[in-house]
Amino acid sequence: MNNESLGPGGLKEGNLAPDFSFRSDNERMKLSDFRDRKVVVYFYPRDFTTGCTTEASEFTRDYDKFRNAGIEIIGISPDNDDSHEKFKKKMNISYHLASDVDHDISKKYGTYGLKKFMGREYMGVNRITFLIDEKGMIVKIFNKVKPAGHSKEVLAIFEITN
Predict the structure, then answer these.
(1) At 150, phi and psi to the nearest 5?
(2) The pTM is what?
(3) 39, 40, 41, 52: which is the annotated catalytic residue?
(4) Which of 14, 18, 37, 104 is most enclosed, with most CB atoms within 10 A?
(5) Local confidence pLDDT in tens for the 162 residues of the chain
(6) Under a CB-based contact definition with an 8 Å cutoff, are residues 112 and 105 in contact?
(7) Domains and CATH numbers, the chain
């Protein structure tokens, strides 16, 4: 097992993805509602920051390719629903963004933890992506994601595993 296959919270490829609920476009949803299709669940630190904007922009650019392949995308950050709505509007995002203000989802997935930036340590959401199959199983974990090029990297994995 390489380090890509183990998430920081102990989740492994082959584990059932923890279910969670969220609001998107004023509708209440759960991850388990998507059991009939593949899902990209990506965690990111904050709306409107440089890296997060890059990542969202690329997933938005490629969203038709994902949707045509039967793959849904859910982006998760600690921002509230109002921030997500503004971010979606500014970035023309058509996929779902889930609010995780209390870090409940990110704790389930082990993406909330110690971060270091410019010599300072603090708690926050780490940029990690989980690929989930139609049965709700984690098939790939991307740790320490680099935003630029990540959407194409995810598409390539789905093409390989199809």
Answers:
(1) -65, -40
(2) 0.90
(3) 52
(4) 18
(5) 444 455 556 789 999 999 999 998 788 999 999 999 999 999 999 999 888 889 999 999 999 999 999 999 999 999 999 999 999 999 999 999 999 999 999 999 999 988 887 888 889 999 999 999 999 999 999 998 999 999 999 999 877 554
(6) no
(7) 38-161 (3.40.30.10)
